[in-house]
């Protein structure tokens, strides 16, 4: 069994990116979004959230940009089908505690499924959510960055660009 990969958390973050759980490769390397088929860092760069293209091995460096990382389930798995309901329930409580402690301006859920597991809401649209679980923290739902996602890359980048624009305008 692979170890959990460390969160990158700090007080005063602009955005805390929240994934489902680490991939097996992330578990092996200790870095978030480490699978080369995962588009996370390419999406951030193309959307204007990062000034250059970062590599997964540099994930801790994004703290300097005000970006942190965590997951609703900490255990690395081959896929979300390997996560059981009890892990989501435990992860939901842990995530809620992290958000309350660190108070990022925006909690960005990388995938609708991550947000629905956290919020227990079923009707969710992309972008900022109208009634956040923790009222002082903006909640933003973005598409998963997995290479398995069938949404066109330009569409995914466009949704993340909404987050970049809100940050630039200091609305989030």
Automatic annotation (TrEMBL):
Stretches of the chain forming a coiled coil according to its record: none
The entry's keywords: DNA damage, DNA repair, Hydrolase
InterPro entries assigned: MUG/TDG, Uracil-DNA_glycosylase-like, Uracil-DNA_glycosylase-like_sf
Chain ranges of the Uracil-DNA glycosylase-like domain: 7-152
Highest taxon of source: Bacteria
Alphabetized CDD domains for the sequence: UDG-F2_TDG_MUG
Entry-linked Pfam families: UDG
Protein name (record): Mismatch-specific DNA-glycosylase
